Amino acid sequence: MLWALAAAIAAAGLGVETWAQNAGGGDTSQGEVVMTKLVAPVYPPLARQARIQGTVVLHAVISKDGSIEGLTLISGHPMLAPAAIEAVKQWRYKPYLLNGEPVEVDTEVLVNFTLSGG
Fold first, then answer.
1. Which residues pair with 34 in a beta bridge?
2. What is the pTM of this model?
3. Fewer Cβ close by (within 10 Å): the C or N end of the chain?
4. What is the CB neighbour count within 10 angstroms for residue 20?
5. Does 87 fall in a domain?
């Protein structure tokens, strides 16, 4: 089901990438961090009309229960960033376990806004 949403996001000209590292410093980018809820960002109408495209880079902490905490903007166009932030705040992940215990995970999220056609 999640792959279908990801495909719909790609078809809408939006892309999402994540890179994660647990708070203890161990790399978890090999697939152990599992997204369970992906909310697509809404392309801001004014940005679409102005043909603004780009990537919004966010830093977040995935909490022990899998919710997003501490979301901060690293970079991105000011007209695109609020839509990316609003969507990512709603994402959920399966809690990451280290030695059988849930741990917080630092993650960098890239939300790509692209327009197709001319």
1. 94
2. 0.76
3. C
4. 20
5. yes
